[in-house]
């Protein structure tokens, strides 16, 4: 998913209003019935969740929400039946966000069985892969592959041409100039192309196939993405920042929709360049890697950086 140009470069006041409306109005509306729990997640401790979808707040909803919070409404809606240009843009964005999340995102998110099939199909196309194919080591996931991580690694490996890639940086990302450190990120990320030193692209992977509740560990990933994006602001030359997300049950059914809204907000605030949901990586990621390779060639980057050489998978 790319950002919609209409909502880029909006001032902080715009995003403050969007977030205030979400807090006061709520993000979802309840539908009939309950969400189906995938068989591999079923158990006595797994809570049932009502069906719901992202709501589209009306002008009255937004105006009432601001009044409820003790905020002024005139800068958006001078009267109950009129709106400023800023007010119309807020309504347009809230409708767009609900539409893209209700329509595009759930159809691309996968649960473990579908992700496993896609991984095995990709794995069978080569006798060996010169990239890590990591395992999970916690709870129900213990022993299984990290399917989305493996798929991301394999697709990048397949399309990186002559360049190496660091699929598991064990150092902080550093931006340098004339041999001096210009910026060092606060966190280690999940991947960097071709190296965590002056990278062309970096990314985070958030796959939660075996998570049944949307808790603090998952929500923390959203805030980490914002932190990374804030630290990359104004970096020259630009470092592309990507987020790969998956688990239909966790993100869509088990309480993750408000945080999906925040991800879409981060995308349009410029804190992440693209978010790829589930099997969207199959078509879009090869195109992105081709862009990275083109930039690497234009910069005459070496193809054998020690920091970029992954250990081949067993």
Write the layout of secondary structure elements.
Elements: H1 12-25, E1 28-34, E2 50-54, H2 59-68, H3 85-103, H4 105-108, H5 112-123, H6 147-159, E3 174-177, E4 180-184, E5 191-193, E6 201-207, H7 216-231, E7 240-246, H8 248-253, H9 257-269, E8 274-277, H10 280-298
Parallel strand pairs: 6-7, 7-8
Antiparallel strand pairs: 1-2, 3-4, 5-6
Helix pairs in contact: 1-2, 5-6, 6-10, 7-9
What does the model show?
This protein is an alpha/beta fold and 314 residues long. It folds into 2 domains: 5-107, no CATH class; 112-308, no CATH class. The protein is built from 10 helices and 8 strands. A 4-stranded mixed beta sheet has the order 5-6-7-8, with helices on both faces. A two-stranded antiparallel ribbon has the order 1-2. It has a two-stranded antiparallel sheet with strand order 3-4. Helix 1 crosses helix 2.
Sheet/helix structural class: alpha/beta
Report the principal-axis shape.
Answer: globular
Largest sheet: 4 strands, mixed
Averaged pLDDT: 90
SSE pattern, N- to C-terminal: HEEHHHHHEEEEHEHHEH
Strand share of the residues? 5-15%
Please give the radius of gyration in angstroms. 21 Å
Domain count, please report it: 2
Helix content: 40-55%
Question: Which key terms come to mind for this protein?
Answer:
single chain; 314 residues; alpha/beta; 2 domains; 4-stranded mixed β-sheet; disordered C terminus
């Amino acid at each position: 998913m790319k950002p919609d140009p209409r909502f880029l470069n909006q001032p902080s006041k715009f995003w403050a209003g969007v977030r205030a409306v979400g807090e006061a109005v709520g993000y979802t509306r309840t539908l009939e019935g309950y969400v189906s729990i995938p068989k591999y997640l079923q158990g006595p401790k797994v809570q049932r969740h009502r069906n719901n979808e992202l709501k589209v707040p009306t002008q009255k909803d937004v105006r009432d929400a601001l009044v409820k919070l003790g905020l002024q409404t005139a800068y958006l809606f001078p009267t109950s039946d009129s709106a400023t240009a800023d007010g119309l843009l807020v309504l347009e964005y809230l409708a767009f966000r609900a539409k893209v999340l209700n329509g595009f995102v759930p159809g691309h998110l996968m649960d473990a069985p579908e992700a496993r099939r896609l991984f095995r199909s990709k794995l069978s196309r080569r006798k060996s892969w010169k990239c890590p194919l990591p395992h999970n080591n916690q709870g129900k996931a213990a022993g299984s592959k990290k399917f989305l991580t493996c798929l991301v690694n394999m697709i990048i490996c397949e399309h990186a041409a002559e360049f190496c890639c660091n699929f598991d940086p064990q150092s902080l990302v550093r931006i340098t100039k004339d041999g001096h450190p210009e910026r060092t990120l606060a966190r280690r990320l999940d991947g960097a192309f071709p190296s965590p030193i002056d990278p062309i692209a970096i990314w985070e992977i958030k796959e939660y196939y075996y998570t049944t509740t949307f808790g603090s560990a998952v929500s923390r990933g959203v805030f980490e993405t914002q932190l990374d994006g804030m630290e990359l602001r104004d970096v020259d030359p630009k470092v592309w920042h990507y987020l790969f997300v998956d688990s239909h049950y966790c993100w869509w059914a088990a309480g993750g929709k408000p945080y999906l809204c925040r991800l879409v907000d981060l995308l349009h605030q410029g804190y992440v360049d693209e978010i790829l949901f589930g099997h969207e990586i199959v078509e879009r990621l090869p195109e992105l890697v081709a862009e990275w390779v083109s930039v690497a060639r234009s910069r005459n980057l070496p193809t054998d950086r020690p920091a970029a050489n992954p250990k081949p998978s067993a």
